[in-house]
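Ticket 4471: requesting a sanity check on a complex prediction with 2-oxoadipic acid. Repro inputs:
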Amino acid sequence: MNTEQLAQILDNAALNAEPVEQLSLTETFDIDTAYAIQEQLLVCRYERGEKFVGLKMGFTSEAKMKQMGVNDLIWGRLTDKMLIENGGQLNLSEFCHPRVEPEICFLVKKDIDKELTLEEAPEYIDAVAPALEVIDSRYKNFKFSLEDVVADNCSSSAFVVGEWHDAVADLSNLKMELIVNHKVVEADTSAAILGNPWKSVCHASRLAAKYGQEFPAGSYLMAGAATGAVFLNQGDLVKARVRLIGEAGFEVI
Ligand code: OOG
Ligand code: MG
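Returned structure tokens:
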């Protein structure tokens, strides 16, 4: 099958909220082909009127790599349809088997068109916010190879961003908690994200440049989860709490 056909399978799985077999069980494809499938998958969304709003990094923490059995950084694209307003609702029936994880989100201040160093990164970022990412693998049993998950837009499905704060703060060691129904279910510090979430901005800039993805002012960057992800259930009240920068949350209906 060609990349368009493979993307179509994943797009249908997302639209129908019905997971499919891993592509890698029947197809052999490398990581660059996986990114080509991802790009094609986004074309399907853009054709339905969705708009690109940013990037997300994945497997930036040991906890996530261990949980999912993979060992490399990945990146995906976010659209306006994936954004749930802070305090809003997520409709469980629109997802296959969603999980949630606590993150930090950056807001891009000026177009990023090259690989940024850690020193340059703050110049390109306007603000940071606590955030939650909802990941929903389109593969049965949430099981995939690195190529599979990249083709599936890195399980991107929804995200929530809290209040923006000046991006001046040292983000390298902030306590991060995932709270479900008023109970802390996962916790770590922001150091779990590559030792320092600002490094996520550098990697995102490198990968966007490498794959020719525009990364304009006003884009979001989800830096990657600090902890493992947990499955969502109907009625859950979910919150991310990040020291100094506050909370973001939603309700599962
Ligand atoms: C892939 C997405 C990983 C993160 O923050 O590490 C990710 C997955 O776990 O399904 O978003
Ligand atoms: Mg994530």
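Notes from triage: The longest helix spans residues 31-47. Leaving this open until the requester confirms.
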